[in-house]
Write a structure and sequence with these properties.
Layout lengths: L3 E4 L2 E5 L5 H15 L5 H4 L3 H17 L3 E7 L2 E12 L4 E8 L8 H16 L4 E7 L3 H9 L3 E12 L2 E11 H9 L5
Parallel strand pairs: 5-6
Antiparallel strand pairs: 1-2, 2-3, 3-4, 4-5, 6-8, 7-8
Length: 188
């Protein structure tokens, strides 16, 4: 297994079904915080559900349609990043993230997403990387901005999340923009 250092004692590693117990413990620590904007805590409420969700991403990786990585801080799983959609035929993918509160505010998600976007663009030849986020989720929107993404638009009240319709912002970066920002040092 590989581990990519993210700095400050953090690293990015594959997150796989055999790690379901560790994933569930992480989810339990951050369930309320993570669940404010994303449904991941709701669909991974017990060990079987956690293992099943991790298996979905193992299957996506095998089919080359998605990827899942965990963020470990000082040896403890504290969050993750993923390609929820990875469409090599169209050259478009959708990145996403989650993080438990103890790890928030350290730039871990930004650094981790930078690693996976670099891979998607430079190794896999993706042309467009999307970032879909609830309009109220300011920390995630700030990640998109730090990554040099542009706001493409807002889907108004498209997501009935926990009984409340929320807007979804669509952010993206195109491969030429990503490369220009990386070579010019604009991405921090």
């Amino acid at each position: 297994m590989f581990a990519i250092p993210l700095g400050d004692g953090a690293e990015l590693r594959p997150l796989e079904p055999w790690q379901a117990e560790e994933f569930l413990a992480h989810m339990d620590r951050g369930r309320d915080f993570i669940g404010r904007y994303v449904g991941l805590p709701d669909i991974t409420a017990d060990l079987k559900a956690a293992r099943d969700w991790l298996q979905v991403y193992a299957d996506k990786a095998a089919a080359d349609t998605g990827r899942l990585y965990g963020i470990w801080l000082d040896g403890c799983l504290v969050g993750g990043v993923l390609f929820r959609v990875f469409d090599t035929a169209s050259g478009t993918c959708e990145a996403g993230c989650w993080l438990e509160p103890a790890a928030a505010g350290r730039g871990l998600v930004t650094r981790a997403v930078r690693v996976i976007v670099d891979w998607a663009v430079e190794v896999r030849g993706m042309h467009r990387v999307e970032w879909l986020v609830a309009s109220e989720n300011r920390p995630s929107i700030n990640v998109a901005k730090r990554l040099g993404m542009s706001l493409d638009g807002v889907q108004r009240e498209n997501d009935p999340y926990r009984g409340v319709r929320q807007d979804t912002e669509i952010w993206s970066v195109l491969a030429p923009e990503w490369r220009a920002a990386r070579s010019g040092g604009a991405l921090r």
